[in-house]
Design goal:
25% of the residues lie in helices and 17% in strands. It is α+β, with helices and mostly antiparallel strands and 195 residues long. The protein is elongated.
Amino acid sequence: MANLRSSKYHFFCALQFLLLMQTQVLCYQYKVGDLDAWGIPTSANPQVYAKWSKYHIFKIGDSLLFLYPPSQDSVIQVTEQSYNSCNLKDPILYMNNGNSLFNITKPGEYFFTSGEPGHCEKKQKLYVSVLSGNGSAYAPSYGPSALPETASSPSYPTVFGTIPQAPSSSPSLGLPVFITAVMASATWAIFNGMM
């Protein structure tokens, strides 16, 4: 067992710490719609949720945050068929606490709508496509990719300050971590050879 007071042990711990410092968290919490609340879209922007999901890349580990007054609304996860027909019966998941967090745990397509009657018909619904393990995304013709392209990303008013932007693509961590590991091993071998 290594002597906890030896300089070699401290040096090795410092190298491991530096290696860990280079890793990044690859998940993000998205505030749905980047709006101040989950609600019925305005007549000026009825496709707000479809446009919003089109401009984000969702991955396993990400989460969706729905904010709304619990006495006035709710969120339900539904099947594709229920999403398209605005059928609120037999939801997959029902959330009604006003601060609902949905964790993405597997790739695929997710469909959400308001649990309040009439809201889905007014376009208060969200379709999300989550990247699969190989980096490909599901993009059906009826989803957000069927929307016309706009010159720039939509902008939304923020009520509580700025909202951090999600990363546009996953950073590749493989090479920097590998190089650091090789350098740490080589330094450790050289350092051990000197002692």
